[in-house]
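Note to self: keep these together.
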Amino acid sequence: MGIEHIHGGDVFGAAKDLGFEHSEILDFSANINPLGPPPGVFEAIQNNINMIIHYPDPHCRDLKNFLSEYLGIDEEYIVLGNGVAELIYLLVRILESKRAIIPVPTFTEYAISMITAGGSVIEIPLRTNNNFDLNEHEIISKISKGDIIFVCNPNNPTGNLFSPEKLISILKAADSAGAYFVIDEAFMDFVDNYKNHSLIKQVKNYNNLYVLYSLTKFFGIPGLRLGCMVGNPSLIKKMNSAKDPWNVNLFAQVGGAAALKDTDHMVKTKKLINSERKYLYNKLTALPGLHPYSAQANFLFVDVKGTGYTSKEFKSLLSTRGILVRDCSSFSGLDDDYIRLAVKDQKSNKRLIIELSTILEGAN
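Structure:
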């Protein structure tokens, strides 16, 4: 397996390559809240601009307090990071595991973190004939002592939500075998009744469970880089000792705390995503050759092979129109038949559908 970091959201590189201003780019390749951050985030940053003369709080006290209340878990179970990716690499280093079990396709950094640490990866395919659902029995059959099982829920890039029953089954098997179970809930906030699906509360019952949580997607602050991991306090102490002392900058701390206070923005976000996801799904379904999959997150996974175009060709054709989409061929377990589209505001979604219609009309 090669080591290559490929992600969406590079509007600056795309603008330079395509001859656009970055403000002219319509980015469907990054799964970020289309409403952007809550207004209080900008206010908090402006109010604290003079604080850049000081080091940020290395313990993130205020932010951790708000996050503890929001997630419903005690502070000693939480470690904060410069994005979730930092914590994935840190966890792999601390656990000193030599093998990861990963259902694919999924977020690429799980595998890369293990490979760069000198370990190996067992991939468990999420199959098209099962709508990319999780086969817990296949995963359990591979578990050995010391393994790390990574599962993204809802999954990226497929957008589907795995049942808590399947995940608990894997968790119990891993616990019995002396293995570790890592659940990435980066997109869980977008799910209806998300608390019924999150495993965060289970960390008090299982010392081998670690839950990753991102503040960048739902709260629209990817430029601030902010995430956390929830796990047993003894492991959290090791993570805090091993991480960089000032890994979460001042603006991420005050901006994150402000975001967690704004419940109105959360309600508006969920209402918009639910409405626009349905709109985008229905419009894509009506276009010839496109097959979007049902999703619970803020993006849609789309099979394009019926159009006669590859995912790379779709990406190229749309990019010349100033629209970025995620070509999913770089995800392990996928070929060039799939793209991923973020759910954005209706104006943006309508433009995407118009451009797709124009492309597909030209194909016929």
